[in-house]
Write a structure and sequence with these properties.
By secondary structure, the chain is of the alpha+beta class. It has 5 domains: 5-206, Hypothetical protein af1432; 208-352, 2-Layer Sandwich (Beta Polymerase, domain 2); 401-477, Ubiquitin-like (UB roll), CATH 3.10.20.30; 487-631, no CATH class; 639-715, Alpha-Beta Plaits, CATH 3.30.70.260. Strands 1, 2, 3, 4, 5 and 6 form a 6-stranded mixed beta sheet that branches. It has a 5-stranded mixed beta sheet with strand order 12-16-14-15-13, covered by helices on one side. The structure holds manganese (II) ion (MN). Manganese (II) ion binds next to loops.
């Protein structure tokens, strides 16, 4: 390594100095062991980032030091401070999560990992509603609120050093900050941070406007400095006379807030008069109102400008009295009056619980503290009778029961917690759901039942003739997916049943020396009139579902009495494409070539068994429900069949068998291994897909040729 140039050496010395200040400030409220942890994290981070420099020319470690230092203002615990020092090592160096866990513990590792995950996703969309979803996604991904606090501090420091970046990068980061991070800070009640982020974003998004306003403000300030001093003195004197203890400060409004006011109310700079503000901090609530009265005696209030945010607090917990007054020379000015406690909440929001922590309480469960903060806000809200809706939203944001995922085009969709790829497919579009066959999450093929996590990028693969699988109902989480799948299956079953019913009726009519073409409209009408107002389609579906018997309906169509002895209907031809109206019995798994028989089961439609199926034999007593069926000669569909195989238990035997099955153009639907009586043999059950008996025979023949295979049989029960 060459010696560092002089400037870099100086910068490095500067970083060391800043680290020392950090340790000193941290030691003002952290235990010694936490400060020690922080010190070792610094040494570790310095080594990890060695040789890396920021665009500013500073050694990289100066950035995590600054981020960690920002957390001192909220009195964050040692673990969070340590994680802040390490927040970029996983992203930018070879350090792994495991290494951090081994050296600094599980919590620190989780925090660093959490921040790294947030770093990976960028906000690309230009749409406003998407910004809201993106904010929620960030909050959902940060399972611990400290991750968000570190991320916000990281963003603030990056914004402060943004000038060195390329202009297009500057704009992108500033826009993301304005639309995503500043609103999150606001939502968490971190008002100071919120204003800082807005101000910096504005400066980079609209550099010209920012400069013009800065100059205008400087001129106005020059004119009014004396007057501000005069007003400060007058306020202090007035409060003292009224015996109110108070700390009074002059407060300058941010340039962005002045700009916003100009835009919103269409005012010129000269018209935004109350560019000066004052803040009065007193000891308790009664003193707030006393101070207000005293000030209204001193200066005349501007009508309609008083706001009592103590009685009715803002949604994020903010409390203060706001009033606007006519100062000397009728200069308008704004005054905020609040207690010290309100002040801390106004500045630190969700972090105020750390600030207020009682000595001796455990800091381990900060999630609980966040809950407390939300709870206290909720209670105060209900006292003041204000709507708790916002807080409910916030609660959902921080502890979400939703996940947020990206579509391939970068849109964000929200889904219920535990949602799967199928839920996603239906959320995109019903057609996508109905036709989905496979899915990719973060570019990797995954099963459709895979549960999604916030930040996942999800892609659905569809096929034109694919249909929803009833098994999906066992894992989908969203109401939409559930109801669409049910709807589809019901419609499909109805249609397919009607088609089967039509064929059953046709067979029955032919058996009665008639035929479907010979039935007149009048005959149909007469029949339907007597069937309780059912449509022809509904009646046919009933036949297919086995709710009515085709023979009986055929007789009624032809007006033949029930008692007439006639031949049984001829056999129905089974093609295997009848869909849900027809099922192949799970007991005997018939395949083309097997002698078969059909059983009409009420509400289930026609069930096909093999002739020798023992299950079927048991219920042969009701001959009306049984019908002759036969295979269509040229069916090229695949049918499931079970085989059992005994093989010597050797390494790789299953792979050999699977390869052989693939060779014979059969598919494996499922495999299960049964531990045999000895470890020498293994019993393997396969469900295979074959075209017919000949195909099955071919498969079994080639399996027998494998030396390890000892016995193979088809299972029919
Ligand atoms: Mn960073």
């Amino acid at each position: 390594m060459n010696a560092l140039p002089v400037e870099q050496e100086a910068a490095s010395a500067q970083a060391t100095l800043e680290a020392d200040i950090l340790f000193k400030d941290a030691a003002s409220y952290l235990k010694q062991k936490d400060v020690n942890l922080l010190r070792s994290a610094y040494e570790f981070g310095k080594t990890a980032h060695l040789g890396q420099y920021r665009m500013t020319g500073d050694p990289y470690i100066s950035h995590p030091i600054a981020v960690s230092h920002m957390l001192v203002q909220w009195r964050l615990d040692g673990q969070a401070m340590t994680a802040a020092l390490l927040h970029d090592v996983m992203e930018d160096t070879a350090v792994t999560k495991k290494e951090i866990r081994d050296k600094f513990g599980k919590v620190v590792a989780e925090l660093v990992d959490g921040v790294s995950k947030l770093d990976k996703i960028e906000f690309e969309s230009q749409e406003h509603e998407q910004a809201e979803n993106f904010r929620k996604m960030l909050l959902a991904m940060a399972s611990d609120v400290r991750v968000i606090l570190i991320k916000l501090a990281d963003r603030l420091h990056n914004m402060r050093t943004l000038t060195v970046m390329q202009p297009h990068k500057r704009t992108r980061i500033a826009r993301e900050t304005m639309e995503i991070y500043a609103p999150i800070a606001n939502r968490l009640g971190l008002n100071k941070l919120y204003q800082d982020l807005q101000e910096l974003s504005f400066q980079h998004l609209y550099p010209n406007r920012y400069q013009v306003l800065t100059r205008a403000l400087a001129r106005a300030r020059g004119n009014r400095r004396e007057m501000v001093d005069k007003i400060l003195k007058a306020i202090r004197k007035q409060l003292k006379t009224s015996k109110i203890e108070a700390v009074v400060t002059g407060r300058e409004k941010t340039i962005y807030s002045i700009y916003k006011k100009m835009i919103e109310k269409a005012l010129s700079f000269a018209e935004v008069y109350d560019i000066y503000g004052f803040r009065v901090i007193v000891k308790d609530v009664p003193a707030c109102y006393l101070a207000l009265g005293a000030l209204h005696q001193l200066y005349k209030p501007i009508p309609g400008k008083f706001k009592d945010y103590i009685a009715i607090r803002k949604d994020n917990g903010y409390q203060s009295l706001h009033t606007s007054l006519f100062g000397p020379l009728s200069t308008p000015m704004e005054v905020q009056i609040r207690t010290q406690e309100m002040h801390k909440i106004a500045e630190a929001g969700v972090a105020s619980h750390w600030l207020y922590k009682e000595s001796g309480t455990s800091l381990s469960d900060l999630q609980t503290k966040t809950h407390q903060w939300l709870q206290s806000l909720l209670e105060m809200q209900s006292e003041s009778g204000n709507s708790a809706e916002f807080l409910e939203h916030l609660k959902v944001d921080l502890f979400p029961d939703e996940v947020y995922v990206f579509t391939p085009k970068g849109r964000i969709m929200s889904l219920p917690h535990g949602a799967t790829c199928v839920d996603f497919a239906y959320a995109v579009h019903t057609d996508i759901g109905n036709r989905c066959v496979a899915s990719k999450v973060n570019h990797e093929l995954v099963p459709l039942r895979t549960e999604l996590k916030s930040g996942d990028r999800v892609e659905v693969i569809t096929a034109a003739h694919a249909k929803p699988n009833p098994a999906w109902l066992s894992f989908v989480k969203s109401g939409k997916a559930r109801s669409r799948i049910r709807h589809f299956l019901k419609t499909m079953q109805y249609e397919e049943s009607a088609m089967l019913g039509e064929r059953l009726l046709g067979q029955a009519l032919i058996a009665l020396q008639s035929g479907p073409d010979k039935i007149t409209e009048e005959q149909w009408e007469r029949l339907l009139k007597g069937s309780g107002g059912k449509s022809r389609q509904e009646l046919l579906a009933d036949l297919g579902l086995g709710k009515q018997l085709a023979v009986v309906v055929a007789r009624r169509l032809l007006s033949i009495g029930d008692g007439d002895a006639t031949r049984q209907p001829g056999s129905l031809v089974i093609r295997g494409s009848e869909g849900m109206a027809l099922q192949f019995a799970k007991c005997c798994h018939p395949i083309p070539g097997d002698p078969i028989i059909g059983f009409l089961r009420k509400d289930h439609g026609l069930i096909i068994h093999t002739h020798d199926c023992p299950v079927a034999r048991k219920s042969r007593s009701d001959p009306d429900k049984w019908m002759d069926v036969e295979w269509a000669p040229d069916s090229k569909k695949l049918f499931a069949v079970n085989i059992k195989l005994l093989a010597s238990n050797e390494r790789g035997v299953l792979a050999k068998i699977a390869a052989e099955i693939a060779q014979t153009e059969s598919n494996i639907e499922s495999v299960s291994l049964e531990p045999g009586d000895s470890s020498v043999y293994a019993e393997i059950n396969f469900t295979l897909q074959v075209i017919d008996r000949l195909h099955l025979a071919r498969v079994m023949r080639s399996l027998r040729r494998i030396p390890e295979v000892i016995r193979i049989i088809r299972l029919k029960t």
